[in-house]
Amino acid sequence: MSVFVLLLVVVIVIFAVKDIRLSLVSRPTFKMFKKVLPPLSQTEREAMEAGDVWWDGQLFSGNPDWQVLHSYPKPELSKKERAFLDSEVETLLAMLDDYQIVQKDKDLPKEVWDYLKAQGFFALIIPEKFGGRQFSAIANSTIVAKIATKSLTAAVTVMVPNSLGPGELLLHYGTTEQQARWLPNLASGKDVPCFALTGPEAGSDAGSIPDSGIVCKGEFEGQEVIGLRLNWSKRYITLAPVATVLGLAFKMYDPDSLLGKDKELGITCALIPTDHPGVETGERHFPLNMAFMNGTTYGKDVFIPFDWIIGGQQGAGRGWRMLVECLSAGRGISLPALSSATGHLCARMTSAYATVRQQFGVSIGQFEGVQEALARIGGLTYSLEACRLMTAGAIDLKLSPSVVTAIAKYHMTEMGRTVMNDAMDIHSGKGIQVGPNNYLAHGYMGIPVSITVEGANILTRNLMIFGQGATRCHPFVLKEMEAAAMEDDELALKEFDSLLQQHILFAATNASMALIHGLTRSYFAKSPVCGATADYYKQLGRMSRGLAFCTDVAMLILGGELKRKEMISARLGDVLSHLYLASCVLKRFEDEGRQQADLPFVKYAVELSLFEIGQAFNGFFKNFSNPVVNFALKRIVFPFGNHYHRPSDDLAQAMCERMTQPGVFRNRLTHLCYVDDKAGTGVMENAFIAMHNTSDAFKQLKKWQRDGTLSRNDDIETAITNAIEKQLITAEQGVKLHEANNLRKQAIAVDNFQPGEL
């Protein structure tokens, strides 16, 4: 005991006496920190500094304030936005024949293009003073999602002008003159925009783009001016084949020092009319059979005036920051909208198909294997919509949360892929026969497009989420990095010493609280609510402690190597991601009035996230390089072992029961799904309603067949007819049963084509 007291006194003296602390702790740590600090490229540094820290910062703190989560405004549509959805969007959806668009025309019809332009679908984010709609992010997201349930091609065509742009860039960074010149024409549809960033040699590594802009003198409109000589080759550019204005990213150089001392100014963005001399619209791409316009653009020795740079001369070299911040908005609106649309469509149509389709004399929705997949569709759909709402809501708070939007982009597109695969598995042969009545095929083909664009998913998970999150969201690391970069060593050490004390206390608190919560199963952890979801808040708080502590240990031991240990860092990123996803689910549940019908879906979504968190931690512990530290971390975070499990079978069955019943809950779960009475979705929905309304009568027919009242060998139609003849049912009842059975047969039918028709 006396030895322990002595050690405690020594520790107190070391940290309490400044000179001793500086000599024995802070100065050596500062030197080590500068040594292990991972080198950052200019593009990495700008990406790190761009955007805002939001709820992700709370989750990284180890002690999230749930009242803050609940205080965020509930995202809601204005009357004007709701009216647009109910009128213009509904009109557009009725105009779309997606089979004709994708399989035959490979383009939207002219009347659809004209309608999109005339009704301001390309101007959702442009202010009213320029002729735009000036809608919120949640409206933008909802409109794109609704369209995507009918036609992915139309949805992508609408979403691109309303994300990167270049309207978004003009609104944030354009000069007054540039906004006045371009925004009215973009709003009216007179100009169709595209933005060219990706090239043959530069995808996710945008810093390596070879496209160049050389500062020089040249002739423009009959006068000699200072401008740029551009050379570029870009591919995968959506709307490029039809664009009239090209947003272009390139590296800017000033070899003759016409602007100043700097020879390399960095990535820059400019706006160029596509009919400008030297601009070449190249070949069209055909991305996985989707018909939205996508292609290439080239330019060789194209001279443009300096004021075509977005932001004018002040925008020179600021292009990467512009792109990172605006890509963040795109990741938070466009791709989450497409993913949520996948959930809404698949949940509504698959629950109907599982009811209508019969095998072995019963609906396939009664088979537990189908129920497992259907429940996963339902749970992920609830989670997708929750994440869409919360992430778009952050953008409507005038924030650009780069880590949160990267989480949304990666995990929502992956959840969308899972949902679509499950829907295809349940539909089986119905899902793979392409034709006018197949409502899944084009969405299935398009899933990899979402996985690929705006940051390939593998790199988004392995580099962005934790790579930015660990630095941006941590309360001290970025400040310590800034201190280490200071030129005055003594001032830097003083600043670092103060931060280090706080950091040590932060880590010690998280370690001790993680252990306490682990030993007590989070019994004493805080929750802002009572009832069925209270323990979920406690468990998420506990995992937040574990994440914060494990991050500190990983950064301390691995240092700059952590940047290259992508498998390790990505697992910590998965923990952060599922903390965010579960937060979104709980926030939605509260915002929507704690609907009891939603509770099984809330439980499923949160329990699945907790399970994934546990699996990510298991992978982190198992593969951490230091076995002693590995053992210690595991025992602190999970002292009694990892007991998080997948949602139960009983929960899955309760969810399927709700999904296969028509009514308010099913409508709310799938409210974005457009049901077209003239297409496959309408056929399936009508059959579902009819079969549900006659389910008791069909069960009675089966009973009569089993007990011998009716022949066991009769098909359904014959059984109905014989039941009428034997006066078991009335003629009127028989008509309803025949109608329902005919609708059922239409719904399970697949498209056929005459020889030579294709």
TrEMBL record:
Q: Which residues form the Acyl-CoA dehydrogenase C-terminal bacterial-type domain?
A: 471-753
Pfam families in the cross-refs: ACDH_C (PF09317), Acyl-CoA_dh_1 (PF00441), Acyl-CoA_dh_M (PF02770), Acyl-CoA_dh_N (PF02771)
**Pathway(s) served:** Lipid metabolism; fatty acid beta-oxidation
UniProt EC number: 1.3.8.7, 1.3.8.8
Q: Where is the Acyl-CoA dehydrogenase/oxidase N-terminal domain?
A: 79-190
Q: Where is the Acyl-CoA oxidase/dehydrogenase middle domain?
A: 194-290
Q: Top enzyme class of this protein?
A: oxidoreductase
Keywords tagged on the record: FAD, Flavoprotein, Oxidoreductase
Flavoprotein recorded as keyword: yes
Q: What InterPro entries has UniProt attached to this entry?
A: Acyl-CoA_dehydrogenase, Acyl-CoA_Oxase/DH_mid-dom, Acyl-CoA_Oxase/DH_mid-dom_sf, AcylCo_DH-like_C, AcylCo_DH/oxidase_C, AcylCoA_DH/ox_N, AcylCoA_DH/ox_N_sf, AcylCoA_DH/oxidase_NM_dom_sf
Domain Acyl-CoA dehydrogenase/oxidase C-terminal residue range list:
317-462
Q: Which reaction does it catalyse?
A: a long-chain 2,3-saturated fatty acyl-CoA + oxidized [electron-transfer flavoprotein] + H(+) = a long-chain (2E)-enoyl-CoA + reduced [electron-transfer flavoprotein]; a medium-chain 2,3-saturated fatty acyl-CoA + oxidized [electron-transfer flavoprotein] + H(+) = a medium-chain (2E)-enoyl-CoA + reduced [electron-transfer flavoprotein]
Q: Which co-factor is required?
A: FAD
Q: Which family does it belong to?
A: Belongs to the acyl-CoA dehydrogenase family.
Q: Which PANTHER family match?
A: ACYL-COENZYME A DEHYDROGENASE, MEDIUM-CHAIN SPECIFIC ACYL-COA DEHYDROGENASE, MITOCHONDRIAL-RELATED
* This protein's name: Acyl-coenzyme A dehydrogenase
Q: Which organism is it from?
A: Pseudoalteromonas neustonica
